[in-house]
Design goal:
Elements (H helix, E strand, L loop, with lengths): L4 H10 L7 E4 L2 H10 L5 E5 L10 E2 L9 E4 L2 H11 L3 E3 L8 E2 L3 E5 L5 E10 L4 E7 L6 H7 L4 E6 L7 H10 L4 H20 L2 E12 L2 E4 L3 E4 L8 H4 L9 H8 L3 E4 L4 E5 L2 H13 L6 E4 L6 H12 L6 E8 L4 H15 L5 E7 L2 H9 L5 E3 L3 H19 L1
Amino acid sequence: MNIHEYQAKELLKKYGVAVPDGIPAMSVAEAAQAAEKLPGPLYVVKAQIHAGGRGAGKFKNNPEGKGGVRLCKTVDDVKAAAEAMLNQVLVTKQTGPEGKEVQRLYVTDGVDIEKEYYCSLTLDRSTSRITFIVSTEGGMDIEEVAHSHPEKIFKVSIDPASGISGFHARKLAFGLGLQGDANKAAVKFFINLYKCFMDLDASIVEINPMILVKDQVMALDAKFNFDDNALFRHPDIAALRDESEEDEKERIAHQYELSYVALEGNIGCMVNGAGLAMSTMDIIKLYGGEPANFLDVGGGANEEKVTAAFKIILSDPNVKGILVNIFGGIMKCDIIAKGVIAAAKEVKLSVPLVVRLEGTNVEEGKKILNTSGLDIIAADDLADAAKKVVEATKNAISKAA
């Protein structure tokens, strides 16, 4: 689960992580009121969407104009910036060409930045430890820095048994070249950031840039991602979810406890098990197709969930063919078959459907499909299923053209 920058900064402040003063605004009037409450004389108006690269982004209604982060010198400038951004679609390198509509703003106090750094906390799977990643190249795409200047990336892993200690934080501060009072401020910053990350069950915290203002270290921007499986422990965090920022299909999938991610292809996939889902998408590409989604119905899905999953796939207008690939272990093949038939009849299936079933109650499942009266293409194994769905999808597209 993602949250907005202003929400992230409120969480950081609770843990003693320094951030510039700021006030969220949902209207032009609220933006102006926010500026009047801040000390000034400089203000920054920031579009609040779940995507990075806002400053370099462009609005669809004015692609030659300014981006989603604007420096203002007066309250009138803040009002003008708010009017230009609210309810407009901002396109960044992370939104895709469709962009996201800006419905919230964050008006912050301008600060005199001496130096920008990069800082993040995430799980390093190679060490199975929470790891700090810092760099002197703040405000930049960290992937590009890692590619072009790997020597400027500095990492420190934290032993989960002992947690963070002063020497970890000092190692990070010295790695960034911070001395004196700035070093002490950075040590406090890193320790408090780690505590925030662990207490809130975050999966990623990214501060880009982390800035030096005189001898104070602050988070100028903040991105949080939380482990969905731990949200039951944090109802206050779950309440921060902004469903308007989420893909409609992904939002519905979340309600049914389905793992769904929309992709850009035209072959819808319904699979049980994340590993099998990844393999299914890979083999579709191997045979020349493009998956339209990742969808894992899980091991404990019932007919209702399977029906919901099928309807989610079909709600994507780009889907021109569907592959159902089920290995029945905990998930029984006959349950999948009933759900597929129920959904197909409800939405009036109009695209090719390839089904490959194997495992628990497979014969019952195949019998249910064979007697359904639906035009279903049966497959013997995964390769056969991928080949058939790619061929059927191409044929369907050709006929439609």
